[in-house]
């Protein structure tokens, strides 16, 4: 809900404001949660904190599901086997939830509103703010590039099915880039926020489509004709340790698939009465919903195509009207989401440049924009494997956002020794191990 203007509140906002004020007063009187009362008071001063817990769940679930991770996860599962892959998904989803928990505890303890990755880290570890900008820059740039790869994978066969001529992959990417790149040059991208709701609908339908191709209710949903699954006599394993190098390269994709830490601060800012238990409930619900969707798409996609599965699961299904429409919808969503990733990546790149040489101006903004756009276009045209891009992003930006930064922030915020601080240090060390090891494996 938007904040009130000119000191006036709607009836709903006024009711929520009175309710939140009474909750804060009760918390202060009882002394049950000093951190919560201070943070809620700071939110009230900035006219924040009117959203429901349900909206917070949708924000985090959309962060996990509304990108390219769901399309690439089935291929990662093929490197490990479905049973071992499910264990990896459970582990990394739990680590992601714990990282969100560490960040929300730190934000509430610091008590500044609105809180953000930058404000929280700057309050407790200002010398590490460059790491935040680096993580955001790399992650968002990589995700934007993966969107162009998705367009190159899905749009050409869909266009051919609807009667258009056979486009080369690079032609479709270039046409899509002309639209997405133009939108990325805008300074205000608020008009594209409607894609969040659309992305959840498209993801939901994609999972339903994968399920239909497994149960095969009609001839339309036969992924390999009359053959039994998996298609083409491909192999399906519960545990696959035959290629440790391939398994190591797939691990960052599992990490990438459950990264949502960047939006836990939006939940803390917008949801009313953000006690530790309430926010933890939002995190648990969002990641549980996301896990159900991702695991269904991954396991069923793998059971359909076995070890011959494509790095983009939608790329492997036979041409039909329903598949072609789904491919075009995903391509459209990717193009509209592209500027939403370039925008924060560019802002972080500019912040890093200001640390080195604090001179701004339109020329620097234009130069960074041009470099990011050209860089993502060239990578998307030359790299045809979506899994490779997701692997690099997962090993770098996602690992920093999910493991390293939450550990640093929590350890710096809570200085006294306790069990959770030790676990936070363990998450930090895990991230410091995962990132260099996976990067080395990716380039072997």
Structure commentary:
It comes from Cladocopium goreaui. It is found in: Vacuole membrane. Keywords: Amino-acid transport, Membrane, Transmembrane, Transmembrane helix, Transport, Vacuole. Residues 51-440 form the Amino acid transporter transmembrane domain. Belongs to the amino acid/polyamine transporter 2 family. With 444 residues, this protein is mostly helical. It has one domain: Amino acid/polyamine transporter I, CATH 1.20.1740. The chain has 16 helices and no strands. The protein has helices at 11-30, 34-45, 53-65, 69-78, 82-110, 117-124, 129-161, 169-184, 195-215, 244-257, 264-270, 276-305, 321-356, 362-382, 386-413, 419-442. The longest helix is centred in the last third of the chain and has 36 residues, at 321-356. It is globular.
State the CATH topology.
Amino acid/polyamine transporter I
Q: What's the structural domain tally?
A: 1
Q: Give the H and E element order.
A: HHHHHHHHHHHHHHHH
Average of per-residue pLDDT values: 87
Q: Tell me the helix content.
A: over 70%
Count helical runs: 16
From the spread of the alpha carbons, the general shape counts as: globular
The major sheet is characterized as: none
CATH class group: Mainly Alpha
The termini sit apart by 49 Å
Low-confidence stretches: 1-10, 16-32
Compute the number of strand runs.
0
Q: Can you tell me the CATH superfamily?
A: Amino acid/polyamine transporter I
What is the level-2 CATH architecture name? Up-down Bundle
Give me the Rg, rounded. Answer: 22 Å
Class derived from helix and strand content: mainly alpha
**Strand percent estimate:** under 5%
